[in-house]
Amino acid sequence: MIQFYLENSFFQGSINLLLVFVILTLTTIFIMGPKKKNPEDNIHPWFGKYTIYIPNIMSSLRFPLGIWILVLHYFHQLHNPFFTLSFHLSFALICFFDYLDGKFARKWNAVTEDGKSLDPASDKWVTFCLAITAFMYGGLKWWALIIVFAREIISMIQRILLKRKGEDVSARWLGKIKTGVQFTVLYIFLLRTDVLPGTILLDSIAKLFPPNMLLWGTILLCFCTVISLFPFFKSFSYVNDYSRSQREESNRPWYIVMIPNLFTIGNYLCGVTAVFFAMPEVEVQHRSFVILFWILAAALCDALDGPFARKLKSYSDFGACLDSSTDLSTFGLATAMVIFIRFSAIKGGSLSYLGIILALFYFTYVHLRLARFTVLTQQQEDQSEKNDFVGLPSPSGAGAVLIFFTFFENIYLLSISIIFVSLIMYSKMDFISHSNAFKHPFYKYFLIPVMFSGFMMLLILIFQQPFVSAHFSRELIDYFKACSWILFIPLCIYMLDGFRRTYLKG
Q1: Neighbours of 426 (CB within 10 A)
Q2: In principle, which of 18, 126, 406, 496 could form an S-S bond with 288, CB 3.0–4.6 Å?
């Protein structure tokens, strides 16, 4: 039986996967205990007076489990099916303890100040161990490792400073999302290594992922890592603090509330995809137009999440917060990264210091605009009413910047364009919102249909060009450029209308 287990990979994987599932199920049942009869009860029937220490014990156990994963990969003597199973089980216990410690603390009233600090500290330690292991054995990019380490070190310093000021240092919701994405991506990298023999079936699936998908996952990991750092700084509080509205939270079922949030998540993923296609490692034709398409797709998702929330009456303060962080990620960070990567490409692949400066300049102004937008929204008396924008909206600004990359590659013209768009975004000019635009005949019957036609034409070209470029390469680029003009002209009209509404309305 043992010999059959060792020689049959499918049988071995099935048994291992079942064993991990059984251990996790029994562990969860044992730790969480029976249903509470009294909500105020804080004594676990099995742990007694030690109940309050259980969440911290689970957080502490993640430290040796994290280092064990690195040890397993480092020592060749441990490369056998038994220790491979311990690797998968260790990772599963890390994830479950991360979930169970908070749930247990809330259920049994065992929340402590030490636990609020210990939980993120154990997350950081496990992330360090997984990232180092994935870098050494799984092919994780060096720049991703630096981003992960820099984020954890900076957040640790900020957490200490906040604690000294007496402010809350418990884990933010963005940090929880970041941890989940990091663990998933790093685990996939480790599943693809041939260092540890044996299987639980998941590594066979992970090895089917093409290298480009791993690169996309790495970019997603980096974006979640960077965005989760912003709430530790007061000026970026709008990406984490809920903007309390005058409306009550929606009482609709969770799956209805999630519908507008799915568009918001789509916005975020489109921004990540835009950066992915900007990477020089990715071979793609008509790169500038492909990047522009994904940013426009993100803008379309951003335009739909609010109307869907109002139509379905599924608005939530969490959704508003998620929308703010996603806008900063896609139309701020992602577009800034595209600016830097494209400037470096124009320079011949070498590091572009001008690209770094312009990317930081653009991102700063997107941040300032979103911060001001949040303040104006909070000051608004009736927040159910959709007001016009003060300054060019960040989706329009991102689209304008990337349209310029489809027109020319002169770094001086591009620099002037980026600076101009950045300043317009933070200006006091009055721009009509997309909700109010449908009430205006010129926008409703001309400008919006033209923009949508340009986007649809671009969509068709993007997904058809691999099949037709071999025969119509010269004509295809002309069609792409026509798309840019179809999108650029309405955008110019929108900017001119903002100037008219601000300075010529009298």
Answers
A1: 19
A2: 406
